[in-house]
Amino acid sequence: MSWVESTSGGENIASPQVRFENNGGDGSSALVHFSPHLELDTSEDAEGIRPLKAVRFSAKSGQYAPPMDLQTTTKFYKARRRFSALAHEPKNAVVMQFKPGEILVFDNRRILHARSQILPTDGERWVQGAYIDRDGLWLAFERLRRRQAQPLE
Predict the structure, then answer these.
(1) Between β-strands 38-40 and 52-55, what pairing exists: parallel, antiparallel or unpaired?
(2) Contact at 8 Å (CB) between 92 and 73?
(3) pLDDT at residue number 6
(4) What DSSP letter does each residue of 91-102 carry, written as one string?
(5) Locate the TauD/TfdA-like domain: which residues (predicted)?
(6) Is the pLDDT of residue 151 over 70?
(7) pLDDT at residue number 142
(8) Nearest CA among 54, 52, 51 for reference residue 20
């Protein structure tokens, strides 16, 4: 049983729509997104649990909470601090050292990720990111699905 199911803490950060902001690190963009830290699926599994659909959390960016009453705000920040503590525990981390030519592909909404400090002795660092437009992907899928559902004339 996960922290989300075993405590009310998960529900406290799975509800409020938090404002996330990213300026590209250099002010060259202004990306704003509203979502809960923990997005649960709308349907329940066989045990009556709503599976985790996405996780969005960063100790360094935006994440402005919406206006809430004092009791809800207190519970929200207590749960957020607890989640942060769990996420930063060494036993919950996978540490990897990449060699030239290696690649890691992951779903940004399902994996919390970070990097350690880059030391001068580490050498040159080169990282290439790529993103999939989920809306475009689902739109293409839906078009294909509908096209296949139509009878041939």
Answers:
(1) antiparallel
(2) no
(3) 46
(4) GG-------TT-
(5) 61-131
(6) no
(7) 87
(8) 54
The candidate with the shortest Cα–Cα distance to 39, out of 115, 109, 105, is 109
Q: Which residue has the tokens 């993103």?
A: 131
What amino acid occupies position 142? E
Residues 84 and 59 sit within 8 Å (Cβ to Cβ):
yes
C-alpha R_g of the chain: 20
What ranges make up the beta strands (E) of the chain? 18-22, 31-35, 38-40, 52-55
Residue partners of 43: CB distance under 8 A and separation at least 6: 50
CA distance 60 to 84: 11
Q: Is the dihedral of CA 59, 76, 42, 52 positive or negative?
A: positive
* Those residues with Cβ within 8 angstroms of residue 87's Cβ, 6 or more apart along the chain or in another chain: 57, 112
The model's pTM is 0.70
Instruction: Report CA-CA distances (Å) from 16 to 38, 57, 66.
Output: 9, 13, 7
